[in-house]
Amino acid sequence: MSKVSIVVPFYNCPYIDKALESLINQTYKNIEIIVVDDGSTLYSERIEPFLDKILFIEKENGGTASALNTGIKHATGDYICWLSSDDIFSPEKTEIQLHSMKRVNAPFSYTSYYCIDDNGEIITPIIGINPPTRLEFIKAMIRGNIINGCSVMIQREVFEQIGFFDEALLYTHDYDLWLRIMQNFKFHFVPQPLLQYRIHTQMGSKRFAGSIKKENRLVINRHHAKMKKLLIAELKKQ
């Protein structure tokens, strides 16, 4: 029975207890929950009721990529995923996603999701982009990130081959990792909405929109040559 490690980076987030409740209530039970406190000064008391069910790691503040890398390096699972401390996994996420990956022997998968508000109410239809071919997927990823990072599940071996998140990237470390992974591995899409992505005023994607846009361009430029080569190779298969 495969083990799944779920890393939760935590920094001053008031929704952390909701995130952890969603992990404790997963229908798939062979999981380990790793919470990485990235130098928080607020809301740590909301983790206390869960301490006997999680691995809790404290570190100096270093950003999300640093917290994720710390958690992944402590993980002992065969598969790894993560959850932002303001988001929620559907109860069946781990079970459905793992089964789907094993069925097609996929090393990497991502799912559809809903957006929720401050109160946990669903405020959008199902969101999920699944280009019909590998060629269209490459084209879409060259233009921008179509994958919600908290919907992802990855085999441990992928990190061993590709490496970890780039800690110099404050906002687009996930997009950078996807572009590195897809040069060696195929991605699998799970259509069920298995994540609830919270929209609120303090979320980073709202507060730092300008910086994120600039960093996105940096990542695209960094991988331009290799992605172009990947695109040409796929075109030749047509």
UniProtKB/TrEMBL annotation:
Q: Which family does it belong to?
A: Belongs to the glycosyltransferase 2 family.
Q: Which PANTHER family match?
A: GLYCOSYLTRANSFERASE (PTHR22916), UDP-GLCNAC:BETAGAL BETA-1,3-N-ACETYLGLUCOSAMINYLTRANSFERASE-LIKE PROTEIN 1 (PTHR22916:SF3)
Stored SUPFAM superfamilies: Nucleotide-diphospho-sugar transferases (SSF53448)
Query: Mind listing the GO molecular function terms for this protein?
Result: hexosyltransferase activity
Q: What is this protein called?
A: Glycosyl transferase family 2
Entry's InterPro entries? Glyco_trans_2-like, Nucleotide-diphossugar_trans
Q: Where is the Glycosyltransferase 2-like domain?
A: 5-162
Classify the source by domain of life. Answer: Bacteria
Pfam families noted in UniProt? Glycos_transf_2
Q: Which UniProt keywords apply?
A: Transferase
